[in-house]
Design brief:
The chain is built from 7 helices and 4 strands. The protein is of the alpha+beta class. Helix content is about 35%, strand content about 20%. It has a 4-stranded antiparallel β-sheet. It is globular. The chain binds adenosine-5'-diphosphate (ADP) and magnesium ion (MG).
Length: about 150
């Protein structure tokens, strides 16, 4: 299996619930390393651009409103099979359909306010990581996320 990087977002509902640490701890305990991290309040433009693939969907305006309703935590996670592993830890989009022990099953209120975002493929991971982080803000792959060095 290859070492991959993926974009993770702790969404405004989770930040408001004060569960940033609980969420990060799930990733860490399941083998993913945080290799970049920043807290930010997204602008409407940030959120619209990030979710451009959904702009024709009926829920788009509400999604942008929700994603800009408070600060988020933006992270790059790294590890073996990180893209699929992150999605597995997150659970299904709709918390009612999410498997037991997943973040969305345990913490999400609704299909909209569902606690976390994770890239869904290698191509979206590379676009999404670059949307929020410069290369210089991500620790070097050679360190496995452990040494804190910057590229
Ligand atoms: P995921 O985040 O699991 O990849 P999608 O990419 O399909 O899911 O949707 C992006 C986000 O849009 C979801 O995480 C959720 O916040 C919101 N969303 C998705 N479907 C709906 C829906 N039917 N109604 C309201 N919000 C939705
Ligand atoms: Mg998605």
């Amino acid at each position: 299996m290859a070492v991959e990087r993926t974009l993770s977002i702790i969404k405004p509902d989770a930040v408001a619930k004060n569960i940033i640490g609980k969420i990060v701890s799930r990733f860490e305990s399941q083998g993913l390393h945080v290799v970049a991290m920043r807290m930010q309040k997204l602008s409407a433009r940030d959120a619209e651009g990030f979710y451009a693939e959904h702009k024709e969907r009926s829920f788009f305006a509400d999604l942008v409103k929700y994603m800009t309703s408070g600060p988020v935590v933006l992270m790059v996670l790294e590890g073996e099979n990180a893209i699929a592993k992150n999605r597995e830890i997150m659970g299904a989009t709709d918390p009612k359909k999410a498997a037991e022990g997943t973040l969305r099953r345990d913490f999400a209120e609704s299909i909209e306010a569902n606690v976390v975002h994770g890239s869904d493929s290698p191509s979206s991971a590379s676009v999404e990581v670059a949307y929020f982080f410069r290369q210089s803000e991500i620790v070097k792959k050679c360190c496995g996320g452990q040494c804190g060095c910057k590229s």
